Hints:
The structure holds 2 protein chains of 2 kinds. Chain A is mainly α. Chain A has 2 domains: 2-62, no CATH class; 74-280, MetI-like fold (Orthogonal Bundle). Chain A is built from 14 helices and no strands. Chain A starts with a helix and ends with a helix. By secondary structure, chain B is mainly alpha-helical. In chain B, 74% of the residues lie in helices and 0% in strands. Chain B contains 13 helices and no strands. Chain B starts with a helix and ends with a helix. The chains are: A mainly alpha, B mainly alpha.
Amino acid sequence: xxxxxLGRVLLYAxxxxxxxxxxxxxxxxxxxSVKPLAEIEQGNMVFLPQTFTLDAWRAAWSSAQIGVEAAGxxxxxxxxxxxxxPAVLISTLLGAINGYVLTQWRFKGDTLxxxxxxxxxxxxxxxxxxxxxxxxxxxxxAGTTSGLVxxxxxxxxxxxxxxxxxFYASFPRELIRAAQIDGxxxxxxxxxxxLPNSVPIIVVCVIWQFTSIWNxxxxxxxxxxxxxxxxxxxxxxxxxxxxxxxxxxxxxxxxMLAGLPTLLVYIVAGRYFVRGLMAGSVKG
Amino acid sequence: MTAxxxxxxxxSVWLPRLALAPSFAAVLVCVYGFILFTLYxxxxxxxxxxxxxxxxxxxxxxxxxxxxxxxxxxxxxxFGVLYIGLCIAIGAMLAIAxxxxxxxxxxxxxxxxxxxxxxxxxxxxxWKWLLDPGVGLEQVMHVLGWQSFVFGxxxxxxxxxxxxxxxxxxxxxGFVMALFLAGLRGISDEVMKAAQIDGxxxxxxxRHVVLPQxxxxxxxxxxxxxxxxxxxxxLVIALTGGGPGRATELPxxxxxxxTFTRNQMAVGASSAVIMLFTVMAVMVPYLYSELREQRDxx
Lengths: 284, 298
């Protein structure tokens, strides 16, 4: 009996130590974002603040020097929102249509079509950077938010299609047959029967797309210019600026601000995020 | 059959394909077309802008003579082996520990997984300064009175790549935990009961009954982690920017800097092609078998 009590204690200790390890960066960011800079420079990075101040948050939001502008993260935050909302909506809509076709209106070669779309999710995006930059230039979308929306939609379709296809694969065929006999066609079956029953997977898909598009760095860094830069790219420019005093407290506050939307979504709807994560590993 | 119903039948054949067509066309052009374009560029003499004159394999020869590319490949193998190994070890251990009827399982799971929900550009900011000897952990230890404490890996050419490993494992091991936990929960109760009746318990139960059943999960984890390791980019950018010097360069950062900042587009394209083929070697057989499995299950 004593051995098993000891075992339980060790088990909880192990789980607790790892929980701390995962939390350290978040705690460090939070603690140091509300300290005056001098306190951090003295080597207090892991301690509670002696003086509590929100100056760093204010600076990060509206006055920090990023590139040539000293306007903080605010404008880039707006850029991210303008990019992420249409990109999420369009890629989710297309994924829903594709998943519906690939499961309920199957045709010869549909598995190949799906396979090609699925593999597209796993390519290293370095392979498309050069031609995509050319195409955006030709379309007049270079350095614009619309261009980024296009990029995120195109490279998001594979995964959104996968989400909906796996979900619709277990959709009761009888419902659709019955509707067909009643004279309903492709569009009306989707609108009236399939879509109203898709709420769970729509939530999963929207949350997943929101998180991954908000967090993207590679496409933002490659295709945005100063006026359309997403907040994650701006954060990187702020933190890795080589000139001037290193304002660690402002960096941490900026990182918190840039991470807050996806962190909040995770806290509120983590369950759905994890479902998306697992579906992305293909096993449905 | 009336003309109207014939038209409707025809419509019901073509409408679904028409609905799928824009997405499929976009993928064909922007994925497969672009892959061919980059492949072609890798055989040209493109520098700042694409040119289309055929050069043959010269860029690949140049690429494999470049010390920077050798560094990137050596780093990828160090990083890849440690990253995959540690993620699996920690992920599997945490999953097994969490599977012992733990009180706060939901909270712990959420804590272990949150790094996946945040951009590494965000969490890397904390790692970058924590690992920085001037202001982070080393400085903290000095303030606490441990004057001889030294931890400057991030500034050390030989050790910096290991800081990328630490941060990478921190970010992804929770995901591997979730994969294994799902695998563990998928083992039927009857199997476990039967093994327990046969007298298996504790370590032996895991060694002989549970772990063999987790083989498919292990395979998924290895494949997904390999593909993530090859694509790793944000990790390096946020932590070291490829430095000190070029000590933490990976293929993904190499491709970017050669293409966009050093104006060696064709060499950059060649490196992207190598990356793609490496990912394909891992992912194509995996996806193929997954798709077949799903079809057979139907």
